[in-house]
Model the fold of this input.
Amino acid sequence: MQSSSQLTIGATYTREQLAKKFDIKDATLFTGIFRPRGHESIWLFITQDKTPDRTQYRDELAGDDLHVDGQMSGRKDKLLAEHYERDLEVLLFYRLSKVQFEGAAFRYEGPFRFVEQSGKRPTSFHFHRERESVPAAQR
Done:
């Protein structure tokens, strides 16, 4: 199952709401890169302006282009780079800051596709929004 079929682009979701909606008990939901069991999806939770106690990854959504740093360990780098070949969708949950939306929610931006990567520890990734999945009224 692809998670995108049960989400609305432009809606906000807290991690707790997503856990309930998809019956997720896995604590890794509270990390930046999450792969829900039984889904052909990878969820990216991106906060552009991080609090000082968090790793200061460089992450930015600019129009349809998403530039993000992978995890320092690099354990999910291959999964992200090969998502299309593995028939996995990459879904973006994005916010400018932790307090942008009530309950520390994220705005669901929809599916993105890998473009390129560079560097290591952390690897820098470039993704591009899959526009055909965005309803014309939201473009």
